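Lecture notes, continued. The same structure-token format from the folding unit now serves as the input rather than the output. Read the line below as a description of shape only.
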């Protein structure tokens, strides 16, 4: 089983993206990530070698300051790197972004001791991390979570269950959100750093999934798990704000995946159609196909421009960019599914051929509409912003 690596330089890469970093990412993806992608999908094997190749090239901690072992790149560079990885291997891209999703709240709210213990190890691939918010009865509604953290002397005792946790079975450290008092709603949410060997903490078996099969997704169980108070992340009761700050980055990650999956489907489709002569100027009978791929390329370029503009806004704006990030997440992930589905149709009888990898892009893309806040949630956030803008008018 082979995997076709991305072959084109993307249109309209954001001006703020670091070309040296992206050059390194492209080289590692072509040499180490793309060749393994189809096999990882077939076997559901964790993308250990693929991720370690990125970490070994010092492009796995892009948003973390150099002081803590990262590269201190901007979010446009991170989004462009995410696209490159996603266009080759969805499983590797999810592990890559999950490392960042774990590191980011530690950077935001951690003590210097917590940062020193974990950030460089996460950036260098010497440790794996996860972030645990969702529960069987509390997904996008963070404030209704039931995992309880009870203070007991110089420790907290955590009990509860988390679900759909990426890399949860591999993680050396998990940022777990729990409540210290369910009656106080979001005002009691608190974050903790749970380490793999803590008694009372365990992970379930990886779930069988439609796509991104190599990126393990598990349930986590906390059964009277005693956590030292020094492992609390930030102030008690301030975890809700931390979770919201964290999902701003994770939604940009999902949007970047969307652009990457669309691009991956497009490039593989163009390669196959080109090999069949369908893109030749002499093939007037194939003009509808040529127009279709022209439209797909244009839509991907437009989505990338939106993604990079949003990433730049997230770095440089004092205003809350939640609505803009929601629009980028919504648009780019919807694009991924639409483009991949259209690409399968354009290939006709070849559309579901596993060796062409286009059907893999469609399967990998679907979950981006669901995680990091479902796209229904994104529409709700955008609608709320529209309403607030209307209400603020004189």
């Amino acid at each position: 089983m082979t995997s076709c690596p991305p072959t084109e330089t993307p249109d309209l890469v954001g001006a703020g993206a670091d070309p040296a970093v992206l050059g390194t990412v492209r080289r590692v993806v072509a040499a180490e990530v793309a060749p393994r992608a189809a096999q990882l999908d077939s076997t559901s094997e964790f993308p250990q070698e693929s991720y370690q190749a990125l970490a070994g090239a010092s492009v796995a901690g892009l948003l973390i300051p150099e002081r803590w072992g990262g590269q201190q790149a901007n979010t446009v560079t991170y989004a462009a790197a995410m696209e490159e990885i996603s266009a080759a291997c969805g499983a590797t891209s999810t592990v890559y972004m999950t490392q960042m999703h774990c590191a980011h709240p530690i950077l935001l709210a951690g003590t210097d001791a917590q940062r020193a213990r974990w950030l460089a190890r996460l950036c260098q691939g010497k440790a794996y991390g996860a972030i645990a918010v969702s529960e069987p009865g509390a997904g996008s509604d963070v404030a209704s979570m039931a995992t309880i953290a009870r203070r007991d002397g110089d420790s907290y005792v955590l009990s509860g269950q988390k679900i759909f946790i990426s890399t949860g079975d591999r993680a050396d450290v998990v940022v777990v959100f729990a409540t210290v008092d369910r009656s106080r709603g979001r005002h009691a949410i608190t974050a903790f750093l749970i380490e793999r060997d803590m008694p009372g903490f365990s992970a379930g078996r990886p779930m069988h999934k439609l796509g991104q099969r190599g990126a393990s997704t598990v349930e986590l169980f906390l059964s009277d798990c005693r956590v030292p108070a020094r492992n609390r992340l930030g102030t008690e009761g301030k975890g809700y704000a931390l979770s919201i700050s964290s999902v701003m980055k994770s939604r940009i990650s999902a949007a970047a995946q969307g652009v990457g999956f669309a691009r991956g489907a497009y490039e593989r489709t163009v390669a196959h159609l080109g090999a069949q002569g369908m893109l030749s100027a002499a093939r007037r009978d194939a003009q509808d196909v040529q127009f279709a791929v022209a439209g797909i390329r244009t839509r991907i370029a437009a989505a990338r421009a939106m993604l990079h503009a949003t990433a730049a806004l997230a770095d440089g704006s004092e205003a809350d960019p939640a609505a803009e990030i929601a629009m980028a997440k919504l648009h780019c992930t919807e694009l991924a599914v639409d483009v991949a589905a259209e690409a399968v149709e354009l290939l006709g009888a070849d559309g579901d051929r596993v060796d062409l990898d286009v059907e893999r892009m469609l399967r990998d893309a679907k979950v981006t509409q669901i995680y990091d806040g479902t796209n229904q949630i994104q529409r709700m956030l955008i609608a709320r912003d529209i309403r607030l803008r209307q209400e603020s008018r004189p």
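Point for the exam: DSSP finds ten helices and eight strands in the chain.
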